[in-house]
Write a structure and sequence with these properties.
Blueprint (H helix, E strand, L loop, with lengths): L8 E3 L14 E4 L7 E4 L8 E3 L18 E6 L5 E4 L4 E4 L9 E2 L11 E6 L4 E9 L2 E4 L19 E5 L6 E5 L12 E3 L17 E4 L11 E2 L4 H9 L3 E6 L8 E3 L14 H4 L9 E4 L11 E4 L6 E18 L2 E5 L3 E9 H13 L6 H13 L13 H13 L10 H12 L2 H6 L13
Parallel strand pairs: 16-21
Antiparallel strand pairs: 1-2, 1-4, 2-3, 5-21, 6-7, 8-18, 9-10, 9-12, 10-11, 11-15, 12-13, 14-15, 17-18, 17-20, 19-23, 20-21, 21-22, 21-23
Length: 446
């Protein structure tokens, strides 16, 4: 089966980044055999080119195991949408039954100023992100890292856009550390290497980012820890819903899904068979809120007495197809069937959110060099002592945190450096008795 990826893009303003006139239309282009155009009118980011979707997954979806009767895959960009070139319609795939999406009710109007768009102008990607603190947002991890060879995006170029409520003028904020190119220091993620084939890493597809300035001036969403039985009970009471930006919804207005079901089993599949396909299945939430492109990173919300609270992050779509094998050869594959959308439970990232709020991130290269040296002396770090916070330094910090029973964050914080300095100043006998002396560390970074 061969599918040609469709890559739409918005052409916005001029190359100097000036905003277009109020009613100026945008060109919508698709990379298909016959190029067609359609006009949209919107205002998003003050840039030259803006995408109409985020990280469109390759539509040629490989099998993970030819000997299995069913093949399961995960589409990182939640709710993949395609252009139906015959009648030029935008067709959302992850809509179950009748499309329930509609405009945000007046009772939830405040959410419009707490949920925004995360844009990377260099890579032309869009995601939904939401406020979790005055200067912090949460989204999906694959919004920061590509799924092709797990190459990093230009994190310093990330731009968060949020409505301010004052004459609908948006507020823009870049990520903390973007001036020095050290944005990675201010981000905690569940993973930077998303596995789309079993074991699927959807339950680790979350990210928390600190902003350069407080952009969430009109409040932020409270995140709560909720057990799965209580989550199911809230679903039965129709208290769960999703709010996100969708590529195909009302010219980039925020969309409200209405109440949607959360269950363990969907599409005639039992939870026992589904969980085999996922890594960390206990942190996975399967739901059928209607989604589309650019909704990755949007909050799964629950109505409470204090208002909507976050119980998960929408990250992707779970699909499956049947593969018929005869004499060791594949003779037929059925079309992919969408089982459910996937979200990360708030239980997976809430403890890390609290740690990032309190963390004092190291800013100077000299402090990073000290940290690298201390980790190197304990055989956690094997890279160059260069003062650059990269993948090796992050892995070394995580290895040290695991070995010392600390919460695993990978953050280069002042508290961590002080702890290492204090232990370095301890006599060798005391350090050995404490379990951090000459004995080899657990899982050193390579």
């Amino acid at each position: 089966m061969t599918f040609r990826p469709i890559l739409p893009a918005f052409v916005f303003g001029d190359r100097k980044g000036r905003l277009p006139p109020k009613h100026k239309n945008l060109n919508f282009r698709t990379n298909i055999a016959i190029r067609r155009q359609r006009q949209f009118s919107t205002k998003l980011f003050p840039g030259s080119v803006i995408p109409a979707l985020l990280l469109l997954p390759a539509l040629l979806l490989p099998d993970y195991c030819r000997s299995q009767p069913f093949s399961s895959v995960f589409s990182p960009a939640s709710g993949p949408g395609i252009i139906k070139h015959r009648n030029r319609l935008l067709v959302p795939v992850a809509v179950f039954g009748r499309d329930q999406r509609r405009r945000l009710p007046k009772s939830y109007k405040k959410l419009d100023q707490q949920i925004g768009l995360l844009h990377n102008p260099r890579t032309n990607t869009l995601c939904t992100a939401f406020c979790v603190a005055p200067d912090m947002i949460a989204t999906a991890s694959h919004c920061l890292f590509t799924h092709r060879k797990n190459r990093k995006l230009h994190l310093s170029s990330l731009l968060f856009r949020l409505k301010s409520g004052k004459k609908n003028r948006p507020v823009y904020s870049r990520m903390a550390g973007y001036r020095s190119g050290h944005t990675r220091r201010y981000i905690i993620t569940g993973t930077s290497k998303l596995h789309r084939k079993p074991p699927i890493g959807a339950a680790r597809d979350w990210a928390i980012i600190r902003l350069d300035k407080p952009a969430c001036r009109n409040g932020w969403l409270k995140t709560v820890k909720l057990s799965y039985p209580k989550l199911q009970q809230a679903s039965k009471q129709k208290k769960l819903f999703q709010v996100a930006y969708h590529m195909d919804f009302r010219n980039w207005q925020i969309a409200y899904s209405g109440s949607c079901p959360v269950r363990r089993d969907f599409g005639g599949l039992s939870w026992r068979s589904i969980k085999k396909h996922f890594a960390s299945p206990d942190a996975l939430v399967l739901h059928r809120c209607d989604t589309a492109e650019a909704s990755s990173g949007s909050p799964l919300l629950m109505e409470s007495k204090a208002g909507p609270v976050v119980v998960g992050i929408n990250v992707g779509t779970y699909q499956q197809r049947e593969t018929i094998v005869k004499n060791g050869r594949v003779i037929r594959r059925t079309k992919f069937r969408t089982i459910a959308n996937t979200a990360v439970s708030s239980n997976a990232f809430l403890p890390k959110l609290r740690l990032l709020k309190q963390a004092r991130i190291l800013r100077n290269s000299s402090d990073i060099r000290k940290l690298q040296r201390y980790l190197h002396d304990r055989r956690y770090y094997r890279g160059a002592i260069d003062g650059i916070y990269g993948a090796r330094t992050e892995s070394a910090i995580k290895a040290y945190e695991r070995a010392t029973a600390h919460p695993v964050t990978g953050l280069a914080s002042r508290n961590l450096l002080d702890e290492l300095e204090n232990r370095n100043a301890m006599p060798i006998s005391i350090r050995t008795s404490a379990g951090h002396g000459s004995s080899p560390p657990v899982s050193p970074a390579r």
